[in-house]
Design goal:
152 residues; mainly alpha; Heme Oxygenase, Chain A; 7 helices; 73% helix; Thiaminase-2/PQQC domain-containing protein; Haem_Oase-like_multi-hlx; Thiaminase-2/PQQC; Thiamine_Salvage_TenA
Length: 152
Amino acid sequence: AMEGDGGTAAAWMATHRGMYERATRHPFTVSIRDGSVDLAAFKRWLGQDYMFVREFVAFLASVLLKCCKQSDSSDMETILGGLASLSDELSWFKKEAAKWSVDLAGISPLSSNMEYCRFLQSFDDPEISYTVAITTFWIIEKPCTRIVLLPA
C-alpha cells in the first residue's frame, strides 16, 4: 500500500537508486542548479518541457475524469491541486520564454518528447483504470518533488 510512511517509495528507491541518481544528478540538472547551464541547451529544454507540461495537463485531466467515474476517494482535491500547480508552471514557462526569446509556438517536439507525450495520451483509453492512472501520476511526480531537495 502507498501509505504515508514512505515504505513503497523507499523500497522503489532502494531497488532503482542508480537509475534515480542518473536522472536527478544528470549533468544538465546539475548545471542548472549551479548556474553553469549552456544557454542553447536551456532554451531547448524550456521549449520541450513546456510542450510536455501542456500534454501533462491533458493527462491529469483524464486522471481527474477517471477519478470522478471510478473512485469515491478524496483524491479529487489532490488532482485539482496538481492542475492548479500546472497552471502556475505554464505561466512560468511563458514568462521565461519571453525573457529568453524562446518562441514556444514554433517549437518542434524531439522524438523522445513525442514518445513520452504519446505515452501520456494513451491514458485516455477507457480500458485503463483509475488505479493505474493515479499510480502513473504518482510515479511521474514523485521524483520531481525530490530533485530540488538533493544536495549539490
